[in-house]
Write a structure and sequence with these properties.
Radius of gyration of chain B: 20 Å
Radius of gyration of chain A: 13 Å
Structural class of chain A: alpha+beta
Number of domains of chain A: 1
Strand order of the largest sheet of chain B: 2-1-5-4-3
CATH architecture of chain A: 2-Layer Sandwich
Mean pLDDT of chain B: 80
Distance between the termini of chain A: 11 Å
Helix content of chain A: 25-40%
CATH superfamily of chain A: Dynein light chain 2a, cytoplasmic
Mean pLDDT of chain A: 88
Strand order of the largest sheet of chain A: 2-1-5-4-3
Order of helices and strands of chain B: HHHHHHHHEEHHEEEH
Order of helices and strands of chain A: HEEHEEEH
CATH class of the largest domain in chain B: Mainly Alpha
Number of helices of chain A: 3
Strand content of chain B: 5-15%
CATH superfamily of the largest domain in chain B: Tetratricopeptide repeat domain
Oligomer: heterodimer
Low-confidence stretches of chain A: none
Largest sheet of chain A: 5 strands, antiparallel
Number of helices of chain B: 11
CATH architecture of the largest domain in chain B: Alpha Horseshoe
Helix content of chain B: 40-55%
Number of strands of chain B: 5
Low-confidence stretches of chain B: 142-158
Largest interface: A-B, 34 and 40 residues
Strand content of chain A: 25-35%
CATH topology of chain A: Beta-Lactamase
CATH topology of the largest domain in chain B: Serine Threonine Protein Phosphatase 5, Tetratricopeptide repeat
Chain lengths: 119, 275
């Protein structure tokens, strides 16, 4: 799993990557720069993912395959694996924390690749 | 007319959630059956409290019943929900004229003229008013029984985003508690999913802010998500409000972010005008 996360953290501008349990927000694996509170970020990312999943299902867009929280000084990028589309489905979120000028497209591709690997 | 009323009543009985109550209420009002019209309008308002056309209908019935005070409140509410609702603007002008406030009456008619410059009834009302003659009680802009589409008034709050690409669908503005402020959403089958989505999104703004803060990323300014059948973008025009833009999957996230940026600016202006 650590090797899988390497795919993400080697992208320039990525400050860390995690695998998070979508159901309970617990960290499964992590590679984070110092100062990032992995446990708390995982919990909030899982909670946000759950809300998004329900809202997107209600809106008729289907479940999310990638989402991206943009902030002034960076971004949180998340790819839920296939099982995350079902509440209680034991899914995994692949999460990256990045600098504001990161290549979002590249990180997205790596996240998707890791999501396929870990399922 | 009686046949119209029977047909509309049957339609409403079949689908009580539909907006056919607007046409039924108006048909009853025109026939002078004001108590029945009032019941229809009130039932409609209970189901669609954020629909400006419903408040407009209710106000016209109240005006016919000479209950001007409550009519004023209803038209005022309609304008708060949809600031460019010409029916409500004309209604307020009519009531201001009734109490002798000609400046306010003219100002509301001018506001209506800006929205619908080609509407001759507005110029006519201004001329009549200046000549000291009361302008007529405004006729509905969308709820007329002669208007065929029962869904025309459904997305009234979408006027927040008037002129924006896809303003009548796929744009939703809510407050922090998940209450709809403007816009509307329909799913792929065409069903109205506005309230359900709004409820699920309640609290997302605070949660996104907490996450960004915890990561030391500063304030969050947007959330893009790619779905299996569509893409969405979330932004917050004010700290309390949340804007959702939904588009089909063919619209890339980058373009969606640009559209959301424009909608955010419009929503912010609309919210500022409403406070």
């Amino acid at each position: 799993m650590s090797t899988a996360l390497d795919l993400i953290t080697r992208v320039r501008g990525v400050r860390g990557a995690m695998l998070v349990s979508a159901d309970d927000g617990i960290v499964i694996a992590e590679q984070l720069m110092e100062g990032i509170k992995g446990g708390a970020v995982a919990a909030l990312a899982a909670s946000l993912a759950g809300r998004l999943r329900r809202a997107m299902e209600a809106a008729g867009t289907g479940t999310s395959v990638f989402w991206h929280l943009q902030a002034e000084q960076g971004a949180l990028l998340v790819v839920p694996d296939g099982n995350s589309s079902v509440a209680g489905g034991g899914g995994i979120l692949v999460v990256a924390v990045a600098e504001p000028d990161v290549n979002i497209g590249l990180v997205r591709l790596e996240l998707l690749r890791v999501a396929e690997t870990v399922v | 007319m009686a046949d119209d009323i029977r047909a509309l009543s049957a339609q409403l009985a079949q689908d009580p959630q539909s907006l056919v109550f607007l046409r039924l209420g108006e048909a009853l009002r025109r026939k002078g059956q004001l108590d029945a019209a009032l019941r229809v309008a009130m039932n409609g308002l209970e189901r669609h409290p954020h629909l400006a056309d419903a408040h407009d209908l209710y106000a016209r019935i109240l005006t016919d019943k000479r209950d001007y005070e409550r009519a004023f409140d209803e038209w005022d509410m309609a304008v708060r929900i949809a600031p460019n609702h010409t029916g409500a603007l004309k209604g307020l002008a009519f009531l201001y004229f009734k109490v002798g406030d000609l400046a306010q009456a003219e100002s509301h008619l001018e506001a209506a003229r800006k929205v619908e410059p080609d509407d001759p009834s507005i110029d006519q009302a201004i001329t009549m008013m200046r000549g000291g003659v009361s302008p007529p009680v405004p006729e509905p802009t969308v709820a007329s029984p002669t208007v065929a589409s029962p869904t025309l008034g459904a997305l009234d709050e979408a006027r927040v985003f008037a002129g924006l690409e896809g303003a009548n669908e796929g744009l939703l503005l809510i407050d922090g508690a998940g209450r709809v402020l403007g816009g509307a959403l329909r799913d792929r089958a065409g069903a109205d999913v506005t309230d359900a989505v709004a409820a699920y999104l309640a609290g997302v703004s605070q949660e996104a802010a907490r996450t960004a803060k915890l990561l030391g990323l500063g304030a969050w300014n947007g959330l893009s998500a790619e779905g299996q059948q569509g893409n969405v973008h979330l932004a917050h025009p004010t700290p309390e409000a949340l804007l959702l833009v939904v588009r089909e999957r063919g619209i890339p996230l980058g373009r969606l972010a640009i559209l959301a940026h424009r909608a955010t600016a419009m929503a912010r202006r609309w919210l500022e005008r409403g406070t």
